[in-house]
Amino acid sequence: MSRLRKEQLVGLLMVSPALILLAVFFLYPLVNSFYMSFHKWPLFGKPKWVGLDNYIFMFQDERFWESLKFTFVYTLTVTPMLFVVAIGTALLCNAKAWGTTFFRSIYFLPVVMSFATASYVWLWLYSEMYGVIVYALEFFGFGGENKNLNVWKTGTSSMWAVNAMVTWKFSGIQMIILIAGLQAIRDDYYEASKLMGASRWQTIWNVTLPLLRPSIALALILSIAGSIQAYEQFVIMTRGGPSNSTKTLVMHTVDMGFDYFKLGPAASLGVIIMIILFILTVIQLRLFRKNY
Amino acid sequence: MRRYSSDWYWYYAINYTLVIIIIFPIYWTLISSFKKPSELITSEPTFYPHDLTLQYYDQIWNFDRLKRLQDTESEDSESSGVEIESKFRLDGEGVKRPFMNSAIVSAGTIILTIIVCTLGGYALTVLNTPLKNFFFLLVILPILIPGISLIIPLYKLLKDLGLTNTHLGLILIHTCGMLPLGIFMMRNAFNSIPSSLREVAMLEGSSELKIITSVMLPLAIPGLLTVMVFAMYVSWNDYIYAFIFINSPENTMLNISLMKIALGGSQFEMKWGSLTAGSIVSFLPIIIFYTFLQQYFVRGVTGSAVKE
Question: Any bridge partners for residue B35, and if so which?
Answer without folding.
Answer: B52
